[in-house]
Design a protein that fits this description.
Layout: H1 3-14, E1 17-18, E2 31-36, E3 41-46, E4 87-90, E5 95-98, E6 101-102, H2 103-109, H3 112-121, H4 127-138, H5 146-152, H6 160-170, H7 184-209, H8 223-232, H9 243-255, H10 263-272, H11 278-290, H12 297-308, H13 314-322, H14 341-357, H15 363-375, H16 377-381, H17 389-398, H18 406-427
Antiparallel strand pairs: 1-3, 2-3, 4-5, 5-6
Helix pairs in contact: 2-9, 3-9, 3-18, 4-7, 6-7, 6-11, 7-8, 7-18, 8-9, 9-14, 10-11, 10-18, 11-18, 12-17, 14-17
The chain binds carboxymethyl coenzyme *A.
Length: 455
């Protein structure tokens, strides 16, 4: 693949035209005119999709020995690192679409497996495509028996996310063809395996962590029904999931399937850009998701609600948040500066779930936190609204998921998004190994001194 030649061409097309007079613009009105006050030279930089290419700044130099300008953007708050056709978020208006389909419509009419197909393939499946896809996923849910021994090796109180990071990475050792990432057949095979096996890994990790015998997949059940079976089946010969809870979990999976360039997706793309097999890249993505600011937030919300303990203590807790002592977990988002549309849907699901399980006593604390926060200038001025994690933990807890499995419940459905983003990155002619720049602020060159001469 003539990747580098293509990239160079694109680069050449997009660099700054140096020293143009601002009234002489080859890119018309779709350009940015910049004057470097160090040299007095003016440059014209093309604007494409509301962005300028950072590499165009490299032409802006004080002299031949100057490296050229770079952008400094810690945490990528204003940098697009890829073009993507998968997920669109309008954070100001609270809109989320997968491949153009609004999340509200998918949550109402679709299933997780159908949505995963959409995210991975770009369009909703026909009936036949859906049947084939569901059949394939259902028939790849089993794990190699050695995986059981690997899972048994963890300490009795191991966090299921720690087990998931390790076991999903270990899967690469079972499928040597997974390294053939530019072979479409091998690539698709690993996509199917990963989507199919993540629930089994997660369920095994949980059952092992509580000392229960592992439950094998049941091919008669749906994707989420089977997951519930592997988690909760005890002595009954056939596990029958409650249809309301099975559907609720399926909708939660739809809501978590992708979310454009979040921290774990960035990890997936960045690790994938050095071309390891997808199991290794997914292990990196799961690790990124584990943190309390990302997928670990649903677990932290529940711990926070327990800490608050009662509606009476809510005002006091909000005070501590405003003093910067604690964060209101499940609130705020880098992109949404309006109500997270997923949180709105989750609130509706919560009502359906609580009809079956009984009302979660922590719900009143959550509702009071939200009520007070949404009236408070601290939250209003910072545009902090409930995000996807604020209510999902309450649902999971009511469905009897142990709190440690909450981030795992995020990792399973997000696997579809990670894989779609990984494949898009691999096939994108403009992408290459991820390698940001830095501004060095350490000491200048100095000489090594023997130990007894050091202060
Ligand atoms: N509680 C209190 N203050 C907050 C919160 C919060 N949850 N989130 C942001 N702020 C304040 C923050 O202190 C800062 O205030 P100031 O301007 O006075 O310094 C301002 O709001 C901007 O915050 P930021 O940290 O610069 O925003 P960010 O875009 O870097 O962080 C975030 C986004 C999601 C990490 C953050 O809002 C947060 O920590 N939320 C709690 C954790 C959470 O719920 N995470 C789940 C995110 S949604 C699911 C997912 O995608 O993983």
């Amino acid at each position: 693949m003539p990747r580098s030649a293509e990239t160079e061409n694109t680069k050449a097309k997009n660099t700054a035209s140096s020293q143009v007079a601002t009234n002489d613009r080859p890119h018309g009105r779709h350009s940015l005119s910049v004057t470097d006050n160090r040299t007095g030279k003016s440059y014209e930089i093309p604007i494409e999709n509301g962005t300028v290419r950072a590499i165009a700044l490299r032409d802006i130099k004080t002299g031949p020995d100057d490296f050229g300008l770079m952008t400094y953007d810690p945490a990528f708050t204003n940098t697009a690192h890829c073009k993507s056709q998968i997920t669109m978020i309008d954070g100001d208006r609270g809109i989320l679409n997968y491949r153009g389909y609004p999340i509200e419509q998918l949550a109402e009419h679709s299933t997780y497996l159908e949505t995963a197909y959409l995210i991975l393939n770009g369009d909703l499946p026909t009936r036949q495509q859906h049947e084939e896809w569901a059949f394939e996923i259902t028939h790849h849910t089993f794990l190699h028996e050695n995986m059981k021994r690997l899972i048994e090796a963890f300490r009795y109180d191991a966090h299921p996310m720690g087990i998931l990071v390790s076991t999903v990475g270990a899967l690469s050792t079972f499928y040597s063809e997974a390294k053939s990432i530019f072979d479409p057949v091998a690539r698709r095979q690993q996509v199917v395996r990963l989507i199919a096996k993540m629930p089994t890994l997660a369920a095994f990790a949980y059952r092992a962590s509580v000392g229960l015998p592992l439950v094998y997949p049941d091919n008669d059940l749906s994707y989420t029904g089977n997951f519930l079976n592997m988690l909760f089946r005890m002595a009954e010969p056939k596990y029958r999931p409650n249809p309301v809870l099975e559907r609720a979990l399926d909708v939660l999976f739809i809501l978590h399937a992708d979310h454009e360039q979040n921290c774990s997706t960035l990890a997936m793309r960045a690790v994938g850009s050095s071309h390891p097999d997808p199991y290794s890249a997914v292990a990196a993505a799961v690790a990124a998701l584990y943190g309390p600011l990302h997928g670990g937030a649903n677990e932290m919300v529940l711990r926070m609600l327990k800490e608050v303990g009662s509606v009476r203590n809510v005002s006091e807790y909000i005070k501590r948040v405003k003093q910067g002592q604690v964060r209101l977990m499940g609130f705020g988002h880098r992109v949404y500066k309006n109500y997270d549309p997923r949180a709105r849907i989750i609130k509706q699901i919560a009502d359906q779930v609580f009809e079956v399980t009984g009302r979660n006593p922590l719900l009143d604390i959550a509702l009071e936190l939200e009520r007070i926060a949404l009236q408070d200038d601290y939250f209003i001025s910072r545009k902090l609204y409930p995000n996807v994690d604020f209510y999902s933990g309450l649902i999971y807890q009511s469905m009897k998921f142990p709190v440690e499995t909450f981030p795992v419940l995020f990792a399973i459905p997000r696997t579809a998004g990670w894989l779609a983003q990984w494949e898009e990155m691999l096939l994108d002619q403009e992408q290459k190994i991820a390698r940001p720049r830095q501004i060095y602020t350490g000491p200048p060159r100095r000489d090594y001194r023997p130990m007894d001469e050091r202060m």
